[in-house]
Specification:
The protein is built from 1 helix and 5 strands. It is globular, with a radius of gyration of 16 Å. The structure holds zinc ion. Zinc ion binds next to loops.
């Protein structure tokens, strides 16, 4: 069956910024993770928690140089919002 439209376009997406606690008590410098998600995501916070819980990191640090390494399953998500900076998204 051939049903591939020649002008098929990628789904609209946007850059989601997720703020994660570095895990150090009283540190107010969250780690910011940027990722691309499809628009229409209903709850940014629950989507952010889902994505983070599935993620691992080699070494990412907050602004105060506290580092997370390994699984982010236990990481505390502090917030999530669409980053409206003018990102250039490349579709291959
Ligand atoms: Zn920190």
């Amino acid at each position: 069956m051939e049903n591939i439209a020649s002008d098929e376009r990628p789904k609209a997406c946007n850059v989601l910024c997720i703020e994660v606690s570095c895990g150090t008590r009283d540190c107010d410098a969250p780690i910011r993770i940027h990722t691309v998600v499809a628009l229409g995501t209903e709850s940014l916070l629950s989507e952010a928690r889902r994505l983070v819980s599935l993620s691992t990191t080699d070494q990412i640090g907050c602004g105060s140089l506290h580092f997370l390494k390994g699984s982010l399953r236990e990481a505390e998500v502090l917030g999530a919002y669409f980053d409206t900076e003018n990102w250039e998204l490349a579709y291959l």
